[in-house]
Write a structure and sequence with these properties.
It is a single chain. The chain has one domain (3-68). The protein has helices spanning 3-10, 16-33, 40-54, 60-68. The chain starts with a helix and ends with a helix. α1 crosses α3, α2 (16-33) packs across α3 (40-54) and α2 runs parallel beside α4 (60-68). The chain has 70 residues and is mainly α. The protein contains four helices and no strands. It is globular, with a radius of gyration of 11 Å.
């Protein structure tokens, strides 16, 4: 189980379909930025993705765009 999956499932807030979408965003950004998916930077990224999701941003393209601004 990956960092983002542990974080999201731990909070019991979203289902498998949403986790899959967020995981895709997480994986893409980690790959593009050359972030170790198991490292501290990745954990911070997962928290940012989840925080954006909690504010109502559920579209993967919008999430990517918002994260590209940071």
């Amino acid at each position: 189980m990956t960092v983002i999956q542990r974080h999201l499932l731990h909070n019991h807030i979203i289902g498998p379909d949403e986790i899959s979408k967020l995981q895709s965003v997480f994986d893409e950004i980690c790959q593009r930025r050359k972030i170790d998916p198991g490292g501290e930077e990745a954990a911070g990224l997962a928290r940012r993705i989840f925080a954006l999701f909690q504010t109502g941003i559920h579209d993967p393209n919008k999430l990517r765009a918002m994260l590209d601004e940071t």
